[in-house]
Specification:
Strands 1, 2, 3, 4, 5, 6 and 17 form a seven-stranded mixed sheet that branches. A five-stranded parallel sheet has the order 8-15-9-10-11. It is an alpha/beta fold.
């Protein structure tokens, strides 16, 4: 066994781990990163964010081609198989791996392809097939091991027609019908993707509405457009059993209903990847989903061990994970860039996509805040008419007396891009955060950003 000492050791090479490692390295620390995958990028690059969003983009291009009358002069609508559109995801994934591998090399971060296990609060034991095992020590550790799909033990995921949100990327054919259990972000995104490929989709939701954390109007819009595109949404339904055979899968629900389809996709929750870390050796415990508790500086109960990203739960977004990793590293470095990451816009890549930041109408109403609403519908914007993406809206929630911006909710093409303009204004101190910015600023025409001017004027007209 060979012992090496580092200032900081990061466990996990996804977005959170990368953020922590790069920040520590650029502050002159000796840094190592340990990951059990052959290549860097974590689940974000290999199984989750990058593949699913690349897949979604390809499907959206297919939809645009098949529904645009101009392309009928070229030929008839085209059908693409699921494996065919996955090829684009593979191309993007390879580029991301190459890019991020260069980051670690350029910043002299030592990489260990290995499984890590704590021996004590300053020592890790590494296990891999090549070296058999070695030990490394560090002053500080950052756990950034991410999450995996929660797999209930009574569902047979070894069956070749039963998938989870990771294994679905190995699907080698295009099913005619698919049942998706779980209508969270991942379930809704895959419902959009499969119905865009012409697959008949049953979306089973254990809750009473889709994505209940969203503004009600946005949630309703998503529900309408999924149904309008042929998705059958069933609310308040919980599974009793899942039975697969050579010809399909039958989902038995507690209500007595049965749903049969060619394939079944489980999208109901994720669990932190902490089971093999030897946390018991340092006195750390996880919750029932394998997640670690941290304070407002991302410290666990062991002062020199931090945790960031999906392994701590909310919000479970790659965007937040990058910043959480960097912030944990900033706390270790004691530099001036630490911040607790709580200003996180949602980015939901359904078709159409959704993004929001700030308060919802329901939250403001319950708090008895005198707010008003400004709306801009994409069908009225010249840029949306030109691009052929008229579905969607931008909604601004603001205080009717001070005109302070308190919530931004966007549904439609490029929503995840559009929301950042409003987010920038919301983060301005004091009177700089006001609806007047959009009224007194000239936006390029035609653009989607012009929706802010339209929505602001619409809201201004409601004030008396």
């Amino acid at each position: 066994m060979s012992d090496q000492h580092f200032d900081v050791v990061v466990i996990g090479a996804g977005p959170a781990g990368e953020g922590a490692a790069m920040n520590a390295a650029k502050n002159g620390r000796r840094v190592a990163i340990v990951d059990d995958k052959q290549t860097v990028g974590g689940n974000c690059t290999h199984w989750a964010t990058i593949p699913s969003k690349a897949l979604r983009y390809s499907v959206k291009q297919i939809i645009n081609f098949n529904t645009n009358p101009m392309f009928r002069d070229i030929g008839e609508p085209r059908w693409f198989s699921f494996p065919r559109v996955l090829q684009n995801a593979e191309r993007v994934r390879n580029k991301q791996v190459k890019l991020r591998t260069a980051f670690y090399a350029r910043n002299r971060v030592q990489r260990f392809h290995s499984r890590a296990r704590f021996l004590d609060q300053n020592q890790l034991e590494l296990h891999d097939e090549e070296t058999g095992g070695q030990r490394i020590t560090a002053d500080s550790f950052v756990i950034a091991t991410g999450s995996s799909p929660y797999l209930p033990p009574d569902v047979d995921f070894s069956h070749d027609r039963i998938y989870n949100s990771d294994s679905i990327l190995t699907l080698s054919h295009t099913p005619r019908t698919i049942t998706i259990y779980g209508a969270g972000v991942i379930g809704c995104e895959y419902a959009s993707i499969f119905c865009g490929l012409g697959v008949k989709v049953d979306l089973i939701n254990p809750g009473s509405r889709l994505l209940s954390f969203l503004d009600d109007e946005i949630s309703d819009a998503l529900s309408y457009h999924l149904r309008n595109n042929g998705v059958l949404v069933r609310h308040n339904e919980k599974y009793e059993s899942v039975e697969g055979d050579d010809h399909g899968v039958v989902l038995n629900l507690e209500s007595g209903k049965k749903v049969r389809s060619d394939a079944f996709l489980w999208c109901n929750g994720r669990s932190g990847n902490t089971g093999s870390l030897g946390l018991e050796n340092v006195g750390l415990e996880t919750n029932y989903r394998g997640q670690l508790a941290v304070d407002d500086h991302y410290r666990t109960q062991v002062p020199n061990i931090y945790a960031v990203g999906d392994v701590i739960g909310w919000p479970g977004l790659a965007s937040a994970a990058y910043d959480q990793g960097r912030s944990a590293s900033s706390d270790i470095m004691a530099d001036r860039y630490f911040r607790y990451v709580d200003d996180v816009p949602t980015g939901i890549y359904t078709i159409p996509e959704i993004s929001s930041v700030g308060k919802t109408e329901r939250e403001l109403t319950e708090a008895k805040v005198p707010y008003e609403v400004g709306q801009a519908f994409f069908k009225d914007l010249a840029r949306a008419q030109i691009s052929g993406d008229p579905v969607g809206m931008l909604k601004l929630l603001f205080h009717r007396e001070t005109k302070e911006l308190m919530g931004i909710h966007c549904f439609g093409d490029q929503a995840a891009e559009i929301v950042h303009i409003g987010q920038a204004i919301m983060n301005q101190p004091g009177e700089a955060n006001t609806l007047d910015y959009f009224i007194n600023t000239t936006f390029n025409y035609p653009t989607m950003a012009e929706a802010y001017r339209v929505a602001a004027l619409n809201g201004l007209n409601r004030i008396f």
